[in-house]
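Q: Convert this sequence to structure tokens.
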Amino acid sequence: MTSLHGRVAIVAGASGGIGAATVRAMLARGMVVVAAAPSDALLDALARETAPFGARVLIVPTDITRRRDVDLLVARALVAFGRIDALVNLAGVGSSPSFCDSSDDEIERVFAVNLLGAARVMHAVLPVMKAQRGGAIVNVGSVAGEAAVMGAYSGSKFGLRGLNDSIRREVRSDGIGVTLIEPGFVATPMNGAMQNLPGPEIVADAIVGALLRPRRAIVVPAGYRVPVFLVKTFPALADLVFGNARIQERLNRDARAERARARERSE
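A:
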């Protein structure tokens, strides 16, 4: 795509911190946005914020863990606008850094949203883009999909990275670009306890840039690129560092403290 003005984009996970920032960035570029997210207060807030843009925004309550919802999302986008030029997969949930601390329900939820949900939306959108002979897909992974230190969450993002690479190669001859954005820690509700983080706009800008110029992968903020390179180049060193019991305790300290507080509130 040489210009984004008037292009139609589905944003899955549009109500989160990065999702809402991405919707704003797209609207600022003159795009038409189909905003998909579970029906909740965050989606209602996004609907109120984007109401002044009128017909350029379509809000579609969607649970991407259900194929019926995903198919309805794509159908509503086509009925309203006749085409789908871009897809951004942003929906995601976190997990405890410790896999052993995670419940079975938590493990299932992380993979259902982060990996299978993204796969379903791509599976539903790709036939449309192939028929159009063009389009752009951006999947939002994580640096935790390069450095495996976040339990089930890392597993789901590693899976998304592999799926992203496979699909990129499969549809390259159809004129469809497929890009993986891998954010580090940014200021979102998922990282609410952390201070002095860059805002979600840094990821939104990378997403918009990838629609214009698809690339294999983009790590943001740029400061994470060196640690990612080191982890990939020297895996034995990463094993030594993150296999240390003290490092593991520090990684899990906050998550375990929050779980303890949650148990106390429920008693």
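Residues 18 and 104 are 27 Å apart (CA to CA).
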